[in-house]
Write a structure and sequence with these properties.
Length: 143
């Protein structure tokens, strides 16, 4: 059982997540917030729906996570062009600083995780994970 693909994927995810959250513990971020900060660092000023899709978070959950982030001063919501349905999300200066810290922690975790991998193995792993993701997304959308 310990060598089955599903077991290895779940175990590796949980170990990575646990180590990552320990690395950002002093920030008091909740589990969904780091990936949102990381996404906004490179896609600032996007609508909530785009963030939810990119981060694989349900829209209702996204609303509550963003509300908490706004309360903490990490993001701003801006209504552009008078369209109340299109609210754009922006990082504040504090949010940008925190996002950079999160990105640094992600990079450190990736380096530790892949320390014994050569460049070609890293590229292959990335390609395999992307194919797995594509296959799973195809299965979910087919249902």
């Amino acid at each position: 059982m310990e060598e089955s693909l599903h077991y290895l994927l779940m175990t590796d995810y949980l170990l990575f997540q646990k180590a990552f959250l320990a690395g950002v513990k002093e920030t008091n971020l909740t589990p969904g917030q780091p990936k949102i900060l990381d996404y906004l660092l490179y896609h600032d000023g996007v609508v909530q729906k785009e963030i939810a899709s990119a981060c694989h978070i349900e829209p209702a959950t996204m609303t509550s996570v963003l509300y908490g982030m706004e309360k903490k001063g990490y993001i701003l919501r801006k209504n552009l062009n008078g369209n109340r349905r299109s609210i754009y999300i922006y990082l504040t200066d504090e949010g940008r600083s925190l996002a950079k810290q999160v990105e640094s922690t992600f990079r450190t975790m990736e380096e530790k995780t892949l320390k014994d991998f050569c460049k070609e193995e890293k590229e292959m792993l990335t390609a395999f994970l992307m194919r797995i993701s594509k296959n799973i997304q195809g299965e979910v959308s087919d249902e």
